Give the backbone structure.
Amino acid sequence: MKLVEEHAPEGPHLDFKREPYAHAAERRPDRKDANTELRRDATSFANAGHGRIIIGIDEQDESAFAIRHIADPIACEKQVSNVLASNIEPPFSSSECRVFSVLDPLDASRGVVVIDLSSAATSTPRAVAEDNVVDFWIRAGKSKRRMAYFEIMSAFRRVIDADAAQATNGIVRHEVRKLRWHIGREVSCQDEQRWVRLWPMVRELADYAKEYGFEVRQEVLLAIGEVLDFPRRGMPEEVAVFAVEVVHEAVGDAALVWARKPHESPPDTIALAERALNVTWSLLWDSTRYLKNSRILYETLQLWSRILRWSRVMDLKEMEQRIIGDLRRVRAIAAECRYPSGVRLVDWSLLQSEQTGIGSVDLPFDLYQEVHGK
């Protein structure tokens, strides 16, 4: 066994037992004490996150020293499983507590018993419940101790807060979906007042983009996609610019945070970035080919440049190549449509994305004046 070869030390997530808990009970007046000790050990590991107890290992200086196969490991396995199936609240599920035997290849009547423990799916702390007493234990270093009052309160508060956040996010997602339906309905209208009616809806989306988690932000981006679906149909500049700001909010500061940890980008952040690119593509295209609106193009390019810069730091080659390819297409369209400011803005955006520090490339003064109407 590798643990013995490497003299693995006991610690917060590993414990060795020379003999079965039941054998220890034979030396005590009350067999019940051994079962209580087993439950305390198991719940202490679960409350610490995870852990493993191996029965049948000799230790020396609190490290694995030799395999001491116990007799009849199958019986020991059943006894351990039965003990851990009762007097523990909440009960272990089969995936949270696995008990199995590893038999001696030379003698199947001997072996070791392994108890693998993980935290509860709901993160609820586990307790030993015996004789009308509820006892919380936690692994600390190479031993266990009773959980302090504030630790128990904190553990339950995390569960309550998580449940409340999940419920709130579900309600908000429903509200954003309703808003998206109304937006789609208004966008399809042909009257000139539709943008007046859409404006408060877009502003409401901004609030949802700032305050909630990944699933809500995905819904916000889908709703903004409805707004930006066909910009050439008379979309006011202020609506387009504000919509891009909402997309910035929905993507959040995740890119800036994770840029400090290359190659560790979470899937949720990647999904939000990809969605942001998808919903703003039509705006990028229309502001170049049809609208020739430098302010809208500038704001959209700011978003794309930010995501491109982040994709490079994260080494997301496929995303990086896609963005560069799309920006080159936009540049070619700007040149074809004789929109020199568009060409220069795309070139500036690509240069901006190559900055590796916190600095930025200044926008040429004449472009700045055109973008900001000065």
